[in-house]
Amino acid sequence: MSEPYDPSPRDTSFYPSRQHSGGGAVVLPARQELLAGRRNSASQPQPQPQSLSTSGTRHPPLSSDELQSHGPDPQQAKIEAINAELDQTKNILHHNIESIVERGQRLDHLDQQTQALSVSAQTFNTQSAKTRRQFWWKDKKWTIIIALVLILIICGIVGGAVKGSEK
To answer: Polar residues bias located where (predicted)?
Structure first.
C-alpha cells in the first residue's frame, strides 16, 4: 500500500541514524495510520514504528529517552498545531454565532420598529383623511354662505329695481 500524500516536508533530523536517502520523508506506520484517520487502539494492535536506514536495514523504535535527547516529538508538535488551529476555528465559529445572534436581535428590533411605524402610518392616514374631510366641509360652508349672501344681494337689487320701475 502506498503512503498517503502529504505535501509538507518532514524534518527527520531528530532521528540521526534514520535518514532516508531516497529523497522522500520517512513516515512511520503509526503516523500513516494517524494521517489516514484509521487509528483505533481498541480494535487493532499497534505496529512498532520502524524505518529503513540508508543501508536498507530496519532499526528498532527509539525509546522515550532517545526521543527527548533528539528534540521535541514531531507528532506532538503536529497535534498541538492541530489543536491550536481547532481552537482558532472554534473561536471564529463562536464569533460567527455571536454575530448571527446579534443580527437576529437587530432584525427583531427592526421588525418591531416596522410594526410600530406601520401602526403610526395607519393612524396618520386615518387622521389626515378625517382632517381633509373637516376642511373640505369648512370650505364648502364658506362657499355656501358666500353664495347665499350673493343671492340675497342680487334678490335685493332685482327687488329694488322692480319696485323702482313700478313707481
So the answer is: 10-20
29 within domain boundaries = yes
Count Cβ neighbours within 10 Å for each residue of 27-48 and write b for 16 or more, e otherwise. bbeebbbbeeeeeeeeeeeeee
Tell me the three cell numbers of residue 123.
Answer: 393612524
Lowest mean pLDDT, pick from 48-52, 95-99, 110-114:
48-52
69: left (phi over 0), alpha (psi -120 to 50) or beta: alpha
In a domain? residue 50: yes
Range of the domain at 54: 1-71
Average model confidence (pLDDT) for the chain? Answer: 75
Question: Is the pLDDT confidence value at 91 over 70?
Answer: yes
Q: What average pLDDT does this structure show over 75-81?
A: 93
Q: What is the dihedral of CA 54, 57, 63, 66, to 10 degrees?
A: -30
Q: How far is CA 152 from CA 56, 146, 159, 160, 163, in A?
A: 132, 10, 10, 12, 16
The answer, as to whether pTM is greater than 0.90, is: no
Chain Cα centroid distance, residue 17: 52
Q: Which residues contact 8 (CB under 8 A, 6 or more apart)?
A: none
Task: Tell me how far apart the alpha carbons of residues 144 and 135 are, in angstroms, rounded to a whole number.
Answer: 14
Could you tell me if residue 162 is inside a domain?
A: no
